[in-house]
Amino acid sequence: MKQIVVVTPADARHGFALAGVRQLTATPAQVMTTLQEITSDVRTGLVMVDARLVAGPAQQQIRELEGRWPGLCIVLPAPEMAARVEEDYVLALIRRAIGYQVRLS
User: How far is CA 103 from CA 73, 86, 92, 96, 100, in A?
Assistant: First the structure.
């Protein structure tokens, strides 16, 4: 069974771990190195990254990682950020997960 790994800043280090999910902490400068280590483990199937760690060039690097890694990498909105998720992003995740274009109404 594939593992779920969550990468957050240090201030959120206990949240997901309390639910039994493997959780790692990183800084924005460390996030891409951490993601490369996580995705090189064949047991990892889903990686969730706190949006506070993803800025500028890291966004593009994550998209490139998604293109070459068979797992799924999701950027989660940070707790203090608006919870609004763009529909295009959600559709892309669904399309990647099921391999089929869907239309949400």
Answer: 22, 14, 11, 14, 10
104 lies in some domain: no
Question: Model pTM?
Answer: 0.71
Tokens 């280090």 map to which residue? 13
Residue 21: give the domain boundaries.
Answer: 3-98
What SS3 state is found at 76? strand
For the four alpha carbons of 65, 66, 71 and 77, in that order, the dihedral sign comes to positive
39 lies in some domain: yes
Number of folded domains that form the chain: 1
The arithmetic mean of pLDDT across residues 93-103, rounded, is 68
